[in-house]
Design a protein that fits this description.
The chain has 335 residues and is α/β, with parallel strands linked by helices. The chain has a single domain, classed as Luciferase-like domain (TIM Barrel), CATH 3.20.20.30. The protein contains 14 helices and 11 strands. It has an 8-stranded parallel β-barrel with strand order 1-2-3-4-7-8-9-11, surrounded by 9 helices. A two-stranded antiparallel sheet has the order 5-6. Strand 5 and strand 6 form a beta hairpin. Helix 1 crosses helix 2, helix 5 packs parallel to helix 6 and helix 6 packs across helix 7. The radius of gyration is 19 Å and the shape is globular. The model has no long low-confidence stretch (mean pLDDT 96).
């Protein structure tokens, strides 16, 4: 299982480049920038890193077909890929944040992602492409300047239909915060689709995003983990029911306002939710704790590997350079 890191979208291009150099030195596979509403452009943020690194993958997560036409996605990805000599990658997904920000209700989500990936991968071959989809069309698209190794295109997938589609047409899938109790079934679903479509299982990438809140100061780690709990799959019930009883699931559901307030205020105080419930969330949806606890917590990462996850994308928050150092020096050698 290879290790990636995902950066917060508040970093500027120079900061991203410095962290990419550091991560490359530790052998981290890919550094990902995030695509948030009103954040810096994630492709542009990776451009300095393209020139200052030589091995590490440079990725963007997640681009939605509702915010950008697939031909424009292809242009952005292929330009980054040219600048980093074949190391670029991208996740195409629903883009809930963008849809909410634009006031758009996603329509035929699986099809939109599928057609986008097909256009991007088709255009990456450098040959003339004509694509007549039900939602998107590409006419006269010919990126004749493309000469590098094609970039990897992932489907952002958590549920069955998207997993099956990703296994059929993408280079890999990236799940988001799918807990251990659910991840094995998800991996089996996507790999069955890969096999059923006569594709190469060994080269197919299966990734899961996992929050990394390990710090020398245990209290800071716990506060950070609590603060960010809202974005762990937006605490959807289908996640929670895999490790919580019905009463605790209802407690979370009825107090979502408290999680929203904590996230927006960057506070660890979550109104209306007892610590017992919060600790369940931290234990089952994140890697959170002090540095002294890391050896015991690494067992969760080994379970991801045993379930068939061959890439684990650790999402970093505060002090990303410190987190990369811990990952490079203490996590990766122990897996």
């Amino acid at each position: 299982m290879e290790i990636d890191v995902i950066l917060e979208p508040d970093l500027n291009p120079d900061q991203v480049a410095e962290l990419a150099e550091q991560a490359e030195g530790y052998g981290i596979r890919t550094i990902w920038t995030q695509n948030y509403v009103a954040s810096r452009d994630p492709f542009m943020c990776l451009m300095p890193a393209a020139g200052r690194t030589s091995k590490i993958g440079l990725g963007v997560v997640v681009i939605s077909p509702y915010e950008m036409h697939p031909m424009k996605m292809a242009n952005a990805l292929l330009t980054l890929n040219e600048c980093c000599k074949g190391r670029a990658r991208m996740v195409v997904g629903g883009g809930g944040y963008w849809c909410a920000g634009m006031g758009i209700e996603p329509d035929r989500l699986v099809r939109a992602v599928r057609e986008s990936i097909e256009i991007i991968r088709g255009g990456a071959k450098g040959k003339a492409l004509r694509y007549e989809g039900g939602m998107y069309k590409a006419r006269g698209y010919h990126a004749s300047w493309v000469t590098d190794t094609p970039p990897l295109v992932y489907a952002g997938a958590n549920r069955e239909q998207m997993l099956r589609m990703g296994g059929r047409i993408a280079d890999g899938i990236m799940m988001s915060d799918v807990p251990l109790n659910l991840v094995e079934n998800a991996v089996q679903t996507v790999l069955k689709s890969v096999v059923d479509n006569d594709r190469d299982v060994d080269s197919f990438r299966v990734s899961d995003v996992w929050a990394f809140h390990i710090k020398e100061d245990r209290e800071l780690a716990i506060r950070e983990g609590r603060r960010e709990l809202l974005i762990r799959g937006l605490l959807e019930q289908w996640y929670l029911k895999s490790f919580m009883n019905d009463e605790d699931c209802e407690t979370v559901k009825n107090n979502m306002t408290g999680f929203f307030k904590a996230y927006r205020a960057r506070s660890h105080e979550i109104e209306g939710v007892p610590d017992r419930v919060i600790n369940q969330l931290l234990d089952n949806l994140t890697l959170t704790g002090g540095l002294e606890e890391l050896p015991d917590k690494l067992e969760a990462l080994r379970r991801f590997r045993a379930a068939g996850v061959n890439e684990l994308a650790l999402r970093l928050h505060d002090d990303p350079a410190d987190a990369i150092k811990i990952i490079g020096e203490q996590v990766m050698p122990s897996l």
